[in-house]
Design goal:
The chain contains seven helices and no strands. It has helices at about 1-25, 35-50, 50-65, 70-80, 85-100, 105-130, 135-155. Helix 2 (about 35-50) runs antiparallel to helix 3 (about 50-65), helix 4 (about 70-80) runs antiparallel to helix 5 and helix 6 (about 105-130) packs antiparallel against helix 7.
């Protein structure tokens, strides 16, 4: 009988040892608090230097830390527009307007990005509409009309580019 007890005790010790290996849950370490003042300064410096890719990355980190910061979302949108990411810019401009529906510059820039995207859509359609001359003519006419609107809005701007700022407006 003592051999049976020993085997049962040994088996119980093995079960307890294995349970101890997987039973302790790891408590996640608290993330270090984000220094949003430093992050905002870094983003501003990159934005002011025209380093749009780095500015977009810094503003992305800032809006992750401060999701209600409409100004940071606006700068993120502008930086995304400048690096040629119209979908990302549209998304960020919409985030601005969701936080502050009266943010007029965001609404204006959103429209400008969408107009530029429409021009590109009609340009691609012109190249692909070989089998439908009527459709191609309509696409050409619409593209030309939209380009004229865009040229009118950016005439006299110091750096019209994809930042979509109205002439004389501060980004």
């Amino acid at each position: 009988m003592s051999g049976v007890l020993r085997r049962r005790a040994a088996g119980l010790l093995v079960v307890l040892a294995l349970a101890g290996c997987g039973g302790a849950e790891r408590v996640p370490e608290a993330e270090a608090p984000v220094d949003t003042t430093r992050l905002a300064s870094e983003a501003e410096a990159r934005y002011a230097a025209g380093d749009w890719g780095a500015a977009a990355q810094a503003y992305q980190r800032l809006v992750t830390a401060e999701p209600s910061n409409a100004d940071a979302w606006f700068r993120l949108a502008n930086a995304r527009a400048r690096v040629g990411d119209p979908d990302g810019a549209v998304s960020a401009y919409r985030a601005v307007l969701a936080r502050d529906a009266a943010y007029a510059k965001a609404g204006f820039n959103l429209g400008m990005v969408q107009l530029r995207d429409a021009v590109e859509t009609f340009r691609r359609l012109e190249a692909q509409a070989d089998t439908d001359p009527e459709l191609r003519a309509q696409a050409t006419k619409l593209r030309a009309t939209l380009e004229a609107l865009l040229a009118e809005q950016t005439a006299g701007a110091s750096a019209p580019g994809p930042g979509m700022q109205r002439p004389g407006a501060t980004p």
